[in-house]
Amino acid sequence: MRVAVIENMRNTGLGALAAALDEAGAEIEWFRVWQDGILPKDISGHDALVVLGGEQSALDDETHPYLPELVRLTRRFGDAGKAVLGICLGSQILARAYGADNHLGIAREFGWHGIGVTAEGRADPLLSALGGEFTIFEWHADTFSLPEGAVRLASSLVAENQAFRIGRAVYGTQFHFEANSAVVAQWKAEFPDTIARIAPGWLENHAELAARHAGAADAAGLAIARAWVSLIERQEVEMLSQASA
């Protein structure tokens, strides 16, 4: 299993998703577009695509000129029936790829928050193990409209579209389910000035907040990661079955 990971910002980290991919024996190929703008040449070399978060918006084509091609690439992976995962900025890029609108700066959330699972989400493979609500880490200011044909899986008061699915295995999550305790601690160490500006007091209260919420968030994030990775495995089984037929 080969998975292409698009890193839009330095040292983003895969966290829980890395653990789930490692369990599945996946080979990860990193594309650090923040450094060189290089993307996969086509979709044939990878079984799945992951698009991670970043500080830019999904519409920042002028300052991040690789974005239009990344938008087209995510759509090509999805249209081919391959598993696609967009996290935070990645979900906003996915929404753009499928014709939705990006809304900038109107939906700020930071830290551990409760997310509500829709009726469709409770029946969906990605979130079905989490019940009606779960705690997870958020860091975003932008949001998006629901793409036509997408299924809303999770929601919050600040951002109505917290998770969605298109087709079999194209998923966008506004929340950072990959951000387990280790990733959050890394972000705390690397971006203290930004965090202090957008969430006054959070740094000082981190230990208490982590003690209260990180355990549940880590468990939920790993469950989501494993659920998405299992969809890649099922696709491989289907492809092998078709080939043998």
UniProtKB/TrEMBL annotation:
<keyword id="KW-0315">Glutamine amidotransferase</keyword>
<feature type="domain" description="Glutamine amidotransferase">
    <location>
        <begin position="16"/>
        <end position="181"/>
    </location>
</feature>
<dbReference type="InterPro" id="IPR029062">
    <property type="entry name" value="Class_I_gatase-like"/>
</dbReference>
<dbReference type="Pfam" id="PF00117">
    <property type="entry name" value="GATase"/>
</dbReference>
<dbReference type="InterPro" id="IPR044992">
    <property type="entry name" value="ChyE-like"/>
</dbReference>
<protein>
    <submittedName>
        <fullName>Type 1 glutamine amidotransferase</fullName>
    </submittedName>
</protein>
<dbReference type="InterPro" id="IPR017926">
    <property type="entry name" value="GATASE"/>
</dbReference>
